[in-house]
Every structure is written in C-alpha cells, then in structure tokens.
Amino acid sequence: MDTTSFPSDLDIASAATLQPMDEIAAQLGIGPAHLEPYGRDVAKIDLGFLDEPHDGHQAKYVVVTAVTPTPLGEGKTTTSVGLAQGLQRLGKRAVVALRQPSMGPTFGIKGGAAGGGYSQVVPMERLNMHLTGDFHAVTAAHNLLAAMVDNHLHHGNALGIDVRNITWRRVLDVNDRALRNVVIGLGAREDGVVRETGFDITAASEIMVLLTLAKSLSDLRERLGRIVIGYTTEGSSVTAEDLGAAGAMAAMLKDAIKPNLLQTLEGGPAIIHCGPFGNIATGTSSVTADLIAMQGSDYAITEAGFGADMGAERFFNVKCRVSGLKPDVAVIVVTVRALKAHSGNYVIKPGKPLPPGLLAENPTDVEAGLPNLRKHIEIVRRFGVQPVVAINAFPQDHDSEHAVIRRYCNGIGVRTAVSRHVAEGGAGARELAEVVMEAAHEPSSFEFLYPLDLPLEQKIEAIATQIYGADGIDVSPGAAKALKDYERLGFGGLPVVIAKTHLSISSDPSLKGAPRGWRMPVREVRASVGAGYVYAICGEMRTMPGLSASPNAQRIDVSADGNITGLS
Amino acid sequence: MDTTSFPSDLDIASAATLQPMDEIAAQLGIGPAHLEPYGRDVAKIDLGFLDEPHDGHQAKYVVVTAVTPTPLGEGKTTTSVGLAQGLQRLGKRAVVALRQPSMGPTFGIKGGAAGGGYSQVVPMERLNMHLTGDFHAVTAAHNLLAAMVDNHLHHGNALGIDVRNITWRRVLDVNDRALRNVVIGLGAREDGVVRETGFDITAASEIMVLLTLAKSLSDLRERLGRIVIGYTTEGSSVTAEDLGAAGAMAAMLKDAIKPNLLQTLEGGPAIIHCGPFGNIATGTSSVTADLIAMQGSDYAITEAGFGADMGAERFFNVKCRVSGLKPDVAVIVVTVRALKAHSGNYVIKPGKPLPPGLLAENPTDVEAGLPNLRKHIEIVRRFGVQPVVAINAFPQDHDSEHAVIRRYCNGIGVRTAVSRHVAEGGAGARELAEVVMEAAHEPSSFEFLYPLDLPLEQKIEAIATQIYGADGIDVSPGAAKALKDYERLGFGGLPVVIAKTHLSISSDPSLKGAPRGWRMPVREVRASVGAGYVYAICGEMRTMPGLSASPNAQRIDVSADGNITGLS
C-alpha cells in the first residue's frame, strides 16, 4: 500500500453513502418508538428500549483493550470498529460501543476518536463536534453546580463550607492551559467571594463518568445528589443535594443519558456515548450503551481506554460491577511499533517523525517487547476473561515481525489474528472476527479482583501488586489520612481507580516492557462519590490540556455549503 | 379569572397535544429536504429553504416592541405568540420568530422566554434547556477563540498583542457572579501567562449577536474572521482571522446558524433562534429566522427586546439594515401596571409583591403614565412604521384603565386593541390580529435614522437626541479617543448600539415617563466588529448575572420517567 496516496480519514468518511437511521436502528431491534433523530444521520436511543421484552438470546460481550500504548495510540478504536464490521461480514449481528471524542483534542492535536481509514464511525464531523450536545450538557450541569457553590458562599455560607477545601472545579470542553489555575470572585462585594480554583476539560468532569455509570435516569438523579463538592470546617462532606442543585442538574442531563446511534462505514450500528478521561476516570463508554448493545446484538464490542492495566482493569472492576454484565472476550490490540518501543531501544514523541530504525525490519526488537504483551494477557486472564491478541497491521510492518507475535501467542495458548481493517475495512478484519467468535464460545469465568468490603488502601494495593506487578504501595501521610476520612464518611465501600501514567504498566512513564521491582507511590487520593469510586493519584495528572504552537484549529475551516475541511 | 386556580405555564405546556413537525413545517412551505429533526418535536430549518423559488407573495413584517418595561416585563413574548395564534384563527398564514431563552435565568429567576399561559411555544422544556445546542455552540466557539488568544501569548506572542488590552473574555451560559472578574494563567510556567479577565453570560457573547446578523454560512465565516480580540502595543487591532481561529469557529457554528422550528400551543409554527443580550447587543432573534418567516408566511411576527427605544431602534437601524427587510407594523405592548409605574407613584421590584395600590382601580395613574407610551409611538413613527398599541390584559386590570389607553390612542390616530391571549390563547388575540392586519395594509415608508457614513459620535448623538429625547451627549475623553481610533482602524462605517438601562427611555433608570432636559453620558465605547457595530456604554452594564439566595434551580427536578418539574 502506498501511504502517500492513501486517502485521508475525512476524505473516506465524506465519500461514504450513509444508510437511513431507521434501518441502522432496526439492526438492533430498535423501532421508531425508541429512536429520536438528532439532525442528519444521528439519533438518540431512548432507554425505554431496555424495558422491551427480551427475546432470550445471549449476546457475547467483547471488550477491546491494548498493550501499553505509545504516545500515538495503537488503534483500539479502529480495531473495535473493524471487528464489528468483520463480524457483520460474517453475517453476525454486531455493534460497537465507543466513547464520544472531546472537542479539546479535535482542535488541539490531529486525531479524533472516530476510528480511521476504512474502519470509522460516520458522520465524522458530527461525531467530532457537538454530536447531540451531551458533552455540552455535562459542561452546563457541572458549571451550574459550581455557580451554586459560589452563590452559597456569597449568600452567607449557611452550610459552613470551608472555602479552602472546595474540591468542585469548573469545566470547559477546550484545551485551555490558562484556566488550570485561576482566582475567581475578584471585583466588588457583589462579585462573590475570592478564592483560588481552576478549570478541567469536560472529559475530566465527575459528571461525565457519572453519566457513563448511571443505569437509569433515577440512578443518575441519585448519583448527582451524592456528588461531594467539598467539606465543612468540621470535616463533613457537602453534597450537590445539600445545595439543592441535583434536581436541576438531572433535568439538564435527561437527554444526555440516552446513547447516540451512528453507523460504521459499512452500515453497521455504532453506539457513541460519553467520553470520560482515561487517566482519572474509567475511560469507557457508558453502561447504558453497553446494555443496549447487548440487548440488540449477538456481539457487543465495547472499548476501554489505554492498556489493559488501565481501561480494562476499571472496565472489569468498576463498570461491569455496575452493569452486571460479564465480559466473554478481551481483545488486546498490539502493534509492531509498540512492541519495538517496549524493547526500550526507541523513543516515540507525538508531533515528531518516528525514529527511522523503528520502521526497519527488526523482529528482534519486537521479541524484546513481548513481555509487555505477556503482562496484558496475564491481566485479562486474571479476571477470568478469554484474551485475543489483535495485531493492528501497518503498511510499514514486516511479515517476520507479525510472525514473532503469532508464535509467542500460540506458545501460550492465546488466539491471535492480523487485522488489516484500516486499509481494507471489515474484509481486513475477517480473521480477527473468526478468532473472536471462537474465543467467545469458550467457557468464561469472570470475577472481580477485589470485594468491595476490603479497606480502600488494600483495594489500591491489590491493583498495584496483582495487576501492575508492583512490590507494594507507599501511601503519603496526607493520602492515608484522606482514606481514613473517606471510610469515616461512608465512602469505604466504593471501588477504586488508579490515576497513573498510561505509558507504562508501572507508575513511572519511562519504564517500558513489564517493569518489576518497583513500588507505587500514592501521592494523593480523591473521592468521586457521585460517580461512585475513590481514586488514587500516582503520578502527574493533567486534567486540562493545552494547545500546541500550531493547533489543529488553525487548519479547520468550513465552505459556504457546509463542508468541513481539516478534521482528521 | 381566579388567578389562584389558573394553571402554571408548565402545566399548560405539558398538557398540550403537539402536532407532527412535518405538518408544522408544511405550514411554512418547508419540505423534508430542508427540515432536520432534532429530538422530539423540534427541528432545524436548513438555510437552503431560502434558495427555493419564491412564489411572489409579499409577507407583512411585524415587529413586537413595548413601552419602557417594569422589571417584570410587559409580555412581549406572550403577545407575539398570541398575535400569531390570533392571525392563524383568522385563517392567515402567520409565524412568530423569537429568541431562545438563556439557561442562566432559567435556573436563576422564575420565568423563561417561552411566552406564558395559553400563548406559549412548546415543547417548553426543550426550549428552556439546550434546545438544539446553539447556545452551547456559541459558548464553545467563543472559548476556543479565548484559548487561542492565551495560547498565542504562551507561545511567544508573535502578533505583539498587548496583554493589557485584550477585549475578548470568556463566556458560560450560567448566572455566575464569581466569574465576572478572574485572574487566569496562575501556576507554573507551562500554565500560561497571568492576566486579569472575566466571563460573561453566553447571551452577551459577540458571537451570539454575530450569529443573529449573519445571512449565510459564508457571511458568518467572514464576520467571525473580523472579530477583534484586542490590540497590539502599537494600537493595531488583532482579529480572530489573525489567530487562525475563524475557520474552526465557523465549523463549530455551521449547524447553529440554522433556525429552530417549534410550535405554538395552537399548532402554528414558531421559529426560535439565538438570544443576544438586549442591553449590549441587538436583543432580537436572527436575520435568517426572519427571512425564513417572510418566505414561508403572510405575517412574520418578530420580537425586539425591551422598549421601542432599545430593541426596536436596533431592530430598525441594525438588523433591518443587514436583512434588507422593511417592517410594516410595530406592535407596542403596554400594560396597565407599566403605565401606572410611569406615573412615578409606584416602585416595582422583582421578587417582591406588587405595591397593593398598583392593583386598585386607578385610571388617573394610567393617564399619568401615558407620556411614556406617547414617546414609544413617536419612536416607531420616526422610522416610518405603522404603530399598533396592544394592551396586554391582566386579570387585575379594570375596564376604566383600558379605556384611558384606548381613548388616548384613538385621539392620536393609533390603532389599539386589548389582548387576552395569556388567558384565552389566539381567541383572546382576535381584536389585536384584526387591527394588525388593518395597519399592515396601510402604506409604510420605512427609513433608517442615520446614514452609515455619519461619524460614529454623530450616530450616537442622533439616537440620544432623536430617539431618547436627550438634549445632547457628553462623551468622556477616553470614549472620544476610542471613537477616533475606531475610525482610524476602519470601523467608522458601522452602525451603533447604545448600551443603557431599559428601565427608562433616558440613561437614568430612575427617570420614568418620557424624560426631558437630560444629557446622555457616553462613559466608554466598544467595538463588536465581527457582529458589525460599535456600542456606547451609557450606564452600569452587567454582562454576567448572579444567582439569588434562593435560585430557581433549587426547585427544578426530573422524575424517573423524564418529566421536569419546577420550570416556569
């Protein structure tokens, strides 16, 4: 394949002939009563579909995860789309459930989350901008709560909120580093109370992940009420319910909880919903999206962010605990370039050309990177789920390099397939679809890593040692005190999320492969009580990106007839 | 009528049986090719409808304005909706074009902009929250530009922007006083450049009014490029185009430029689009909405914010100049309580009960308030437009009080009607509809107040003296210098908007009736170059509201089946 003449993602997406939405919905058994069109070629799915009588079929639940990615990503989204297209070509009812891309990166760096090449979700422009406004609804609900916090302070602070201990920030769906740390309430007396706070990107809002984990509108309403915005000087938690904000927030989100229906380039259904951050949140699409996918298909393919240590672990321990769904297969996406990078011989930086040696035929370096793949396979097996290794083929790959991966997987009894879905669409994912079907029919024995009644610190330790391979954890005094406080406040029964780098299985981004002999420092802990988890911060976590010196926004434009250029 | 048993706006709206959107659209001659459904009972109208062959009919263009309002408002929106319903009952093709309500007031104070009683636009919950996301698109495009301004500073400020002279702030669609004045860019070196700025409510965004004045997507694109974000240290203007942001902003707004179609309680079409602030912006719905209304009806009824001195003047001088449309009739909404207030004998405060004397039968006080009505009639006549006085009847009114207004209008040859559309719907607006039809068939001779080539200061003076009745204007030295700078920078040919109180025809909110013997101070001037006007600040202008001690958000909730309570 000549990459110079390969059409751009936008060109491919624009050339697609889209199927009518009622036909896409019909593939899932969704009739007009549960379908709400939202502009051309996009619809929302009413949750009432879940109350329809179930025909008794047992869908297979497939999560797509990856090895520890390079900063460029290894193609989980394209593989998810390609796998669905491949299964459809084999005559199966398959649907893919993905996250909605954030507009921050769309205008920041090249690359959305719509897949790529001939394995994309369309319409791509709608997907990458606004879609049906769910992100905007999250932004608005989040900032209404923030305004009500500051309004409460302004009008006398009857609840006794400690202004130095307000954890609720504001959010915007834009890469804007200048908003990371701000002082608000300046001006005159009527302009509020002065205090320091900041903005995160909307994907990092607790409401975004709360929306992914809510099973119904009433569940959403209750979770919103439980959101902790800060603490009183006496150390009690103050909630959105205490401020009387949760009802209005739920009203603002009543349509955002409905998953969005789009289609693959080959006319299969694609459910797009929510987009929580992969580092501090679950990094998955929603429980409601997956429930609908399971109700309406034979193969529900859902994506979990970053590597299996990150997204898949949270998918298993947090999302599946809420949904009650049991995954059958975990597809681990691997690329030749990622394994070469895990050899430790190359450094890949976003925005820079790949090191030339990385593109040369070098099965030895691929081999040297295999321990990282091995570790992700072990993680998946630890949860009792069948692993399948999907080699996402690039035109620069060499057969000898693919052979190294295949041989290794065969040796440890793991199914593997080379997938050429980016270049060839569903036809290129046929082998992958076949091995996923085989794996899905093996017996599975899904289990959580830890019971919820374990103390919070032991849950963190279980993930660090049993999933990441750490020797142990070092909890800072502040974090230890906070964990105690959380247990006192009744948050001890929540699952945990580890906020760490996605560029290593360890908490040190420079450690490649499958690091051993390290301890995980727990610098700080925070509680997303509304979403329903406690998270431990084990590294530098940026929750508001910045724009580069040459942001992608400068290359985006729209013609007089509404055609967008410059998206990728 | 017993007000205690009169159902709430939400109850009335919820009980309505809505007509299918394709039938609503068909009333305007809009077929499926130009209609994009957006969720239940809402659609967007593609601007391609304006390119359809015109059948040659000549629609009448009716603007609804008012006397100087009390802080409670006098019911322009209900009267606009009621008039359209009344005309429809007389068998006429009529459509109403209104602004979209801001979510700030929806969650702040009781009262939206959807009309009231039996003259409302439905679905009310959609109208008051998100609608099709146009406000959110404005917020996102506005804040992308802001992020690109600060990003430009961060990456070396090649354009030489003076950080002390950046006029572009940020916006959110929420009442949040704590964001009026903020310091951003705090933290470490990689967290941007420290500077003071602030947030306005989205309705006050220049992009909101720009969107109302853009005639097409290409016009929108060009106007976005002309937005001035600040000035260099040498005094040159820096635009969104200079920053390379305008194309991406236009892409984000490509659907927001399409007006939204909803319906009245009586199944007539209602076009809802944009919601620019009435004090610093035009306070009207969009040019595209009105062009569609004129193409698709015999009577296009559009609303202009506040009194005729404010909204109607800008409607005539700014909006009609862009659209090329010539208004036939201006309906001046008056209430008994407003005229009583203009007697100077009562003080009405929002959130407080009305003074009891105001509700007693008192034609003398109504008479004492007539000079205010007279002045608004004169303003409308100054533009060569036929005035019609609509008495928006309240249950507490007395016939003797209506008679005072009727007698006065008859004496000066102005048509008048009592309208009971809030209590009775279109049936209650029958008399109003009839006199509007009569007035619309009188010859009209619409003209602008000033030519665009007049110096900016003389344009401001023309409005102050000829519309407001000031003796002259007093321009501060800073404002005088800025006006000279604007002419040097090429903005001299723009029309002007006066940002002043809406509670008096003068610039002093305490002066009721038709004030004489005063001069208008021009404290400061600003340029909305993208929107296409210069505005003069002649009073305290708040562009970010605050929430009260008991905001309406605390009374809003949603049930498990999605029914919203607490909206009004």
TrEMBL record, chains A, B:
Report a single Gene Ontology molecular function.
ATP binding
Reaction it catalyzes = (6S)-5,6,7,8-tetrahydrofolate + formate + ATP = (6R)-10-formyltetrahydrofolate + ADP + phosphate
Gene3D superfamilies noted in UniProt? Domain 2, N(10)-formyltetrahydrofolate synthetase, Formyltetrahydrofolate synthetase, domain 3, P-loop containing nucleotide triphosphate hydrolases
Pathway the protein acts in? One-carbon metabolism; tetrahydrofolate interconversion
Report the EC code(s) recorded for this entry: 6.3.4.3
**Keyword set, alphabetical order:** ATP-binding, Ligase, Nucleotide-binding, One-carbon metabolism
Where ATP binds, per the record, is at 70-77
Please give the superkingdom of this protein's source.
Bacteria
- Carries keyword Cell inner membrane? no
The cross-references to InterPro entries, in alphabetical order and at most eight, read: Formate_THF_ligase (IPR000559), Formate_THF_ligase_CS (IPR020628), P-loop_NTPase (IPR027417)
Query: What enzyme class is recorded for this protein?
Result: ligase
GO BP terms, alphabetized: tetrahydrofolate interconversion
Instruction: State the family named in the UniProt similarity comment for this chain.
Output: Belongs to the formate--tetrahydrofolate ligase family.
UniProt-recorded name of the protein: Formate--tetrahydrofolate ligase
Q: Which species does the entry assign this protein to?
A: Intrasporangium calvum (strain ATCC 23552 / DSM 43043 / JCM 3097 / NBRC 12989 / NCIMB 10167 / NRRL B-3866 / 7 KIP)
- Protein encoded by which gene: fhs
